[in-house]
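#onboarding

Welcome to the new folks! Below is a worked example of what a typical request in this channel looks like: someone posts a single protein sequence, and someone else replies with the predicted structure as tokens. Don't worry about understanding the tokens yet, we'll cover that in week two.

Example request:
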Amino acid sequence: MASPKAGLDLGRSAYEEHRWGDAFEHLVTANAEGGLPAADLERLATAAMLTGQSTFGIDTLTRSHEEFLVMGDAASAARCAGWLGLFLINQGEMARSAGWLLRARRLVEELDEPGPVEGFLLIPDALGKLYGGDVEGAAVIFGRAFDIGTRFRDKDLVSLAQLGQGQAKIMLGQTVQGLGLLDEVMVAVTAGELSPVPSGIIYCAVIGACHLVFDVHRALEWTAALDHWCAGRPDMVLFSGQCQSHRAQLYVLHGQWPDALAAAGLALDRAARGDPQSVYGGFYQQGEVQRLRGELDAAETSYREAGNSGYEPQPGLALIHLARGDSLLAQGQIRRAAATTDLASRHQLLPALVDIELATGDIAAARSGAEELKALAEAFPVPMVQAHACQADGAVLLEEGDPAGALKPLRRAWTTWRSLDVPFEAARCRILVGRACRLLGDEDSALMDFEAARRDLLDLGAKPAVAAVDSLLGVVSPGPAGPLTRREVEVLRLVAAGKTNRAVAVELYLSEKTVARHLSNIFLKLGLSSRTAATAYAYDHGLAG
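Example response:
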């Protein structure tokens, strides 16, 4: 039978090798057989937290804190108390958290000499200001924490402080500088210089910031890194759910909606097992897929569940009201959300705000939102921001009665969406291009754009968007024409009358190429393979003559 010391050595080795499940089992066994020193109790608490056993972890960290006090190590006891405060914030237990943080500060005040724990305890204060609306005040406190971390060469504290500084700059609109700080922090994380919990916090916060500022390339790069980090720790629960919610967000963006639902489900599963910060992302991304598919009741339920986590589920909830035809309610919600949040979060709401303002007929408000996006694209010229800005500008120009002016930004947006592999937005943009062409009298090009967008939206399963295109195409449904558009019915009638493609083109003022495309669509939609079969279908369904 292994001795308690052997079990302790195995637990320490497993901990250093990031095998959290093994570390937990060995340290629990060693603790039962002979007790653990304070530092090993702290390791056991961390292993418990990382494997989703938060209650056990909090209880064990409390014991570690008490053991450090008995030893007279007030600095380590304060550090444990500070982490207890942060973990309890994560659990939503604000009163207990406040108590532990007050105890930690009292212990720091009793220290004979300052140390890094003094700076660490500034982090909760800074976070409170950051998310309480005092972003500039938060930046000052993060700066003080950074100075203390630098003085004592505490890499965890330096990196957490830099993370906060970067987030603050982004929220103040200093996007380039903020992302630069976050990239610097990620160097320390990916090099393995930091402890496991700060590493996970930083991974998830940095990816969230990348999505916030539409930097999809950075988000993809760091999500892949987080995925790799989690894969190397397969028994880790904490942070793994957040990894899945970030993956779900990317899947939604790239049109992989079944994969997005699967990742969102995994995020919610991990939330139930010990990663509570993945609740919002899991439910919100699930709601996004449901909304885009037209499952509005289910989407609203998902968004409201996301909202129960403490974060506002916008713009998703406002877009649900818009889809139901209640544009004034949608307008009220998106305006309030945009007016009461930080600058970076406001920027993220602008594309939806422009769409909703246009739907309510407030073109001036939509123009204001589009100009704000244009200014953001000039200050921070990443492709996704530029695509949103061009699309918003083109959509507003259409409503302002300038379809010729709208075409240039819309085509630029469409090209960018395609290069980013964002099929839903690319299809929406192509619909706008088609509307501009129609207003300019180029019906042939308009139909080409509408039909191409419709095919892409059908592939995605975006039923509401398909219905919107159908209204532009004039789809005849239900009835003998089945899924055919009015133009396709006209082509079919003339083909059934024995006319060649050239004759059909002359009669309908189309090019032969467009007639051939319409005929190909007819064959595809009706499951036919020849003009003879199409003629028979037209006679059988009363469409000839």
